[in-house]
């Protein structure tokens, strides 16, 4: 009998709790029904839609997300919002409403846009006299704010007509981007070129040079990097602030001098000149005319480094050694590239016999495009090495960004001093007649 009374008491308490929970749920349901997000929309035209809040209940703020990247937070319940959708597609529009304690209710509706405001199109016609030139004409219909052509590595803005120079055999993508109210529409065509342009080198103009015909080194062009830090190669020279470089007979003369016999860091002085932060270049024909020093332990170089070296470091910035020379290998010049995929002793390059490198001036150059780097000596047609990975990426092709020039003579070091240093050879000079950069005229 006592057990039965306990069971009845438990049942009564359970029923009472269930009633309370049911009552709370019922109130909550009523509250939810009184606090409900909703909106209506109507088309002004095919691409403009007006949204009107029709939410119910006690709430005080709204967040609209119109599905096109545009969002609005407001406390104005009665304001309508006109939204422009220039591109066709399905847009999910969300309205989220909040009450004063942070509770929210949300609704989503999908708006279908049938047509694009802008239809991008252009013509591409080959030049009658040069099959590597294509005349591009914008034929886009609809209103727009700006246009941009993109082909190869070039970007040309806000002109309805331009010329695309496609110098090498292959297929090129030409793209036209049209922008209206911060929305970009894109059209493209593939153009196939049957043959390389035989006049490619003729289609270049001189864009920068230093002829070294002033009375002193032009510091608008060059900075002297200084210090006896080894420069990453255990070199022994101290690079001075111009004390080892002069202009003589309209030539730059860099002189490496011996300070003492100890063959330790600082036992020699020299110059290292760079165009960093003053002049850098992306693609073109770079040519330097120079006569080299001689003797065991000497290490002159004419080279380039990526201008982003302070951001990504070496070898990620890429290095183009247009010419290097080590005195213990007389009559041999070296051309090399260094990349994350191969650097230092693993760099890609070539060595060329040049019996008069120390006695006569020679032209050391590269032809650098988005497809290859070709190294030549004396004549641009005298190609000694070509670097052109077929599948380019950041590891093997950091050469899609500007680079700056470096001229220097090192003494000793991992390579230059591999067979010691002959102190009897000093002073030694590298003479530079000019540095020139040519780039495409189109």
Features:
single chain; disordered N terminus; mainly beta; elongated; Immunoglobulin-like; 31 strands; 45% strand; 442 residues; 3 domains; 2 helices
Task: Set out the fold topology.
Layout: H1 2-34, E1 39-43, E2 48-53, E3 61-65, E4 71-74, E5 81-84, E6 89-98, E7 104-113, E8 122-126, E9 133-138, E10 146-151, E11 154-157, E12 161-165, E13 170-180, E14 183-193, E15 204-210, E16 223-224, E17 237-239, E18 245-248, E19 251-258, E20 268-270, E21 272-274, E22 284-291, E23 298-306, H2 309-312, E24 319-324, E25 332-338, E26 348-353, E27 362-368, E28 373-377, E29 383-387, E30 403-411, E31 428-440
Parallel strand pairs: 17-20
Antiparallel strand pairs: 1-2, 2-5, 3-4, 3-6, 6-7, 8-9, 9-12, 10-11, 10-13, 13-14, 15-31, 16-21, 18-19, 19-20, 19-31, 21-30, 22-27, 22-31, 23-24, 23-30, 24-25, 25-26, 27-28, 28-29
The largest sheet, given as strand count, sense and whether it forms a barrel, is: 10 strands, mixed
Q: So, CATH architecture of the largest domain?
A: Sandwich
Radius of gyration in whole Å, from Cα? 36 Å
User: Helix segment count?
Assistant: 2
Q: What characteristic shape results from the CA principal axes?
A: elongated
- Secondary structure class reads mainly beta
Low-confidence stretches: 1-32
Distance between the termini: 107 Å
**Average pLDDT figure:** 92
Description:
The chain has 442 residues and is mainly beta. The chain folds into three domains: 39-113, Sandwich (Immunoglobulin-like); 122-193, Immunoglobulin-like (Sandwich), CATH 2.60.40.10; 201-440, Jelly Rolls, CATH 2.60.120. The protein is 8% helix and 45% strand. It is built from two helices and 31 strands. It has helices at 2-34, 309-312, and strands at residues 39-43, 48-53, 61-65, 71-74, 81-84, 89-98, 104-113, 122-126, 133-138, 146-151, 154-157, 161-165, 170-180, 183-193, 204-210, 223-224, 237-239, 245-248, 251-258, 268-270, 272-274, 284-291, 298-306, 319-324, 332-338, 348-353, 362-368, 373-377, 383-387, 403-411, 428-440. The strands form six sheets. Strands 15, 17, 18, 19, 20, 22, 27, 28, 29 and 31 form a ten-stranded mixed beta sheet that branches. The protein has a seven-stranded antiparallel beta sheet with strand order 16-21-30-23-24-25-26, with no helix packed on it. It has a four-stranded antiparallel beta sheet with strand order 4-3-6-7, with no helix packed on it. A hairpin with a 2-residue loop joins strand 13 and strand 14. The radius of gyration is 36 Å and the shape is elongated. The N and C termini lie far apart (107 Å). Residues 1-32 have low confidence and may be disordered.
């Amino acid at each position: 009998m006592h057990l039965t009374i306990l069971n009845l008491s438990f049942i009564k308490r359970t029923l009472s709790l269930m009633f309370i929970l049911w009552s709370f749920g019922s109130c909550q349901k009523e509250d939810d029904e009184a606090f409900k997000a909703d909106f209506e929309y109507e088309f002004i035209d095919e691409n403009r839609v007006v949204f009107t809040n029709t939410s119910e209940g006690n709430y005080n703020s709204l967040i609209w997300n119109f599905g096109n990247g545009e969002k609005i937070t407001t406390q104005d319940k009665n304001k309508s919002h006109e939204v422009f959708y220039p591109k066709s597609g399905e847009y999910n529009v969300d309205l989220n409403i909040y009450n004063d304690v942070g509770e929210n209710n949300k609704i989503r509706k999908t708006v279908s846009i049938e047509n694009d405001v802008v239809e991008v199109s252009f013509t591409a016609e080959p030049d009658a006299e040069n099959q590597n030139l294509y005349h591009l004409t914008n034929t886009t219909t609809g209103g727009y704010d700006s246009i941009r052509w993109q082909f190869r590595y070039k970007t040309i803005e806000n002109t309805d007509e331009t010329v695309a120079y496609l110098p090498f055999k292959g297929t090129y993508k030409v793209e036209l981007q049209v922008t209206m109210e911060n929305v970009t529409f894109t059209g493209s065509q593939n153009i196939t070129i049957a043959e390389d342009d035989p006049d490619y080198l003729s289609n270049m103009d001189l864009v920068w040079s230093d002829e070294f015909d002033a009375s002193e080194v032009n510091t608008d062009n060059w900075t002297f990097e200084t210090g006896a830090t080894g420069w990453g190669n255990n070199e022994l020279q101290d690079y001075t602030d111009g004390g080892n470089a002069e202009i003589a007979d309209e030539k730059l003369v860099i002189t490496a001098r011996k300070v003492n016999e100890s063959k330790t860091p600082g036992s020699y002085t020299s110059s290292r000149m760079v165009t960093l932060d003053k002049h850098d270049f992306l693609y073109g024909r770079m040519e330097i005319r120079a006569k080299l020093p001689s003797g065991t332990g000497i290490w002159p170089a004419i080279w380039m480094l990526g201008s982003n070296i302070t951001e990504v470091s070496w070898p990620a910035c890429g290095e183009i050694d247009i010419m290097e020379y080590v005195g213990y290998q007389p009559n041999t010049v070296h051309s090399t590239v260094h990349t994350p995929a191969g650097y230092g002793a693993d760099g890609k390059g070539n060595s060329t016999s040049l019996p008069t490198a120390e006695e006569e001036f020679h032209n050391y150059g590269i032809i650098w495009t988005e497809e290859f780097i070709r190294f030549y000596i004396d004549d641009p047609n005298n190609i000694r090495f070509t670097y052109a990975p077929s599948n380019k990426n950041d590891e093997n092709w950091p050469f899609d960004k500007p680079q700056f020039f470096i001229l220097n003579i090192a003494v000793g070091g991992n390579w230059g001093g591999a067979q010691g240093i002959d102190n009897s050879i000093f002073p030694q000079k590298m003479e530079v007649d000019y540095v020139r950069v040519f780039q495409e005229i189109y």
